[in-house]
Design a protein that fits this description.
Number of helices: 10
Strand content: 5-15%
Distance between the termini: 35 Å
Number of strands: 8
Strand order of the largest sheet: 1-2-6-3
Shape: globular
Largest sheet: 4 strands, antiparallel
Helix content: 25-40%
Number of domains: 1
């Protein structure tokens, strides 16, 4: 498509479709933004670049839905208060599942549905589209559970999703990475879940975030609140990480994550610590947004 007006019309239609079907945040990342960018110059791992799925990809559409604050806070508060209806030994697991269903699983299905709507619209317009699961993929091989299958295969001992929706969201201008290894947005802080569509349609890119959103050294609440200590800054010399770099300029926007997290350690929080049995403490303590937009 060489006509700028056609590009703009198609971009507006894609965003309108996403929002009509439930997305609150929508942004476009031109494919060039998945090349290494300052200040950390990360590149997508082999097999996870948009062009690994579509060699002629021209853009990635990122879209997100917020986790309702009261779902996040309410489940944790209810677990702390206890219940006359539930045996004491299942209270924590019960409310953790409540949070998972309404703060994760619901978004997973709805975001995948939005991806399908966008994808089929682009296909009908003569373009290609690749859509993804919202969350990670955890296959079994034979009788081995996912953890045993992947043990020793990568630094996190954990299976990955096929595509990083977080990196796409940042490159689409929807936020920046925070110290909690999540995308922090001006509208909802880190309490957003994302999905993505890769396409060979030329779309108009959105501007990147120009000023830091994460409060960083002025805050660090997410790092202090994690009961298992599973989040570490990537410039910590005591932490061995395949993406370790020199300390990043704190004045620059984090297009790539300044932290790493260990999902296995996070999921073992109930064994390691009796603090905060309901997941999401690194989300709950974040003071952003300072003012709801």
């Amino acid at each position: 498509m060489s006509d700028g007006n056609d590009m703009l019309r198609l971009t507006r239609k894609v965003k309108m479709l996403a929002k009509r079907h439930g997305a609150v945040l929508v942004g476009i990342a031109p494919i060039e933004r998945f090349d290494p960018m300052p200040p950390l110059y990360d590149r997508p791992p082999k097999g996870h670049d948009p062009r690994d799925f579509m060699p002629d990809a021209k853009a990635v559409i990122s879209f997100g839905m917020p986790i309702l604050d009261s779902v996040l806070y309410g489940s944790a508060e209810a677990a702390r208060r206890g219940s006359e209806m539930l045996p004491p030994d299942i209270i924590n697991d019960f409310y953790d599942l409540v949070y998972n269903e309404m703060g994760h699983a619901l978004h997973d299905k709805m975001l995948q549905y939005i991806g399908q709507i966008i994808g089929q619209y682009l296909v009908l317009k003569g373009f290609k589209a690749v859509i993804f699961p919202t969350t990670g993929i955890h296959p079994n091989v034979g009788s081995k559970p996912p953890y045993e299958m992947w043990k020793g295969k990568n630094p996190l001992n954990y299976t990955y999703g096929p595509f990083s929706h977080r990196h796409a969201a940042v490159r689409a201008g929807l936020g920046e990475f925070g110290y909690n290894n999540l995308v922090v947005t001006r509208e909802f802080g880190p309490r957003v879940r994302f999905n993505s569509v890769i396409t060979n349609a030329e779309l108009v890119g959105d501007p990147l975030v120009s000023e830091p959103i994460c409060l960083r050294e002025k805050c660090r609440k997410c790092l202090k609140a994690c009961p298992t200590g599973c989040i570490t800054l990537r410039d910590d010399k005591e932490v061995v990480d395949y993406r370790t770099v020199e300390k990043a300029d704190q004045g620059q926007v984090f297009i790539d994550t300044p932290a790493k997290s260990d999902p296995q350690l996070c999921m073992r929080r109930k064994i390691i610590s009796d603090r905060e049995p309901v997941r999401g403490e690194c989300l709950r303590v974040c003071p952003l947004p300072v003012k709801r937009r």
